[in-house]
Amino acid sequence: MFGRLGAPEILLILVVVLLLFGAKRLPDMARSFGQSLRILRSETKAMRDEDGDGTTGPAPAPALAGGDRTPHAAPGDAVADAPHRR
C-alpha cells in the first residue's frame, strides 16, 4: 500500500513544510527543538545517576528512643509556649 519514500517524495515533503512554516521560522523551530532535546537528555541522565547511586529519596527519620511516640516541641517553639486548652 505505502511504498518506500524516495528522493522525489522527500523533496516534496520538504517543500510543503517550507511553504507551511516559512523559511524565516524554520531555524527558530529547529533551535528550540534542539534545546528541548538537550534538556530532555540532561534530565534523563540526572535521573539515571540518581537511580545508580542507590538512594531513592530522602533519608528516613530516626526512630524515637525508648519507645516514646509522643512528639515534643523544641524550646522556643510557638506551639510549646502557647497556653494549653483542655
Cα gyration radius (Å): 30 Å
How much of the sequence lies in strands comes to: under 5%
- How many helices? 3
What's the total count of β strands? 0
Described by the principal axes of the CA atoms, the overall outline is elongated
Helix content: 40-55%
Distance between the termini: 81 Å
Structural class: mainly alpha
Biggest sheet features: none
Overall mean pLDDT stands at 76
Task: Pick out the low-confidence regions.
Answer: none
Pattern of helices and strands: HHH
Structural features, described:
This protein is mostly helical. The chain has three helices and no strands. The longest helix has 27 residues. The radius of gyration is 30 Å and the shape is elongated. The model has no long low-confidence stretch (mean pLDDT 76).
Secondary-structure blueprint of this entry?
Elements lengths: L6 H15 L4 H27 L25 H4 L5
Q: Briefly, what is this?
A:
It is built from 3 helices and no strands. Helices cover 53% and strands 0% of the residues.
Question: Descriptors for this entry?
Answer:
86 residues, mainly alpha, 3 helices, elongated
